[in-house]
Amino acid sequence: QVQLVESGGGLVQAGDSLRLSCAASGRTFSSYAMGWFRQAPGKEREFVAAINRSGGTTYYADSVKGRFTISRDNAKNTVYLQMNTLKPEDTAVYYCAADFGSGSINPIRFLTGNLEVWGQGTLVTVSS
To answer: What is the maximum span of the chain, computed from C-alpha positions, in angstroms?
Structure first.
């Protein structure tokens, strides 16, 4: 059974950078795609970014494209989200999730959040 544990959240100012990590255990990490999602207070959870099993293909929400970068280190069983030029509207709980499909990015599964395993989340607060 896969377990996901996020870390790296915190309080930053607008314009700052932050890197989130998600450590996975329990299954061959390099066999599945991973993604990041977020949920702001009073809003629904939304897709942020996805990466395929090898790390060679990525996919982003328009709201973060050009500012956020998803990456993974399969040797460390970890996926990262580098967040630059943070804005107050990026304030949210950030979750990582695993897709046990083909290992490729299935946009529908990621956009709908129809994934098998989720972490507990890490809070990112961006002050203006």
So the answer is: 41
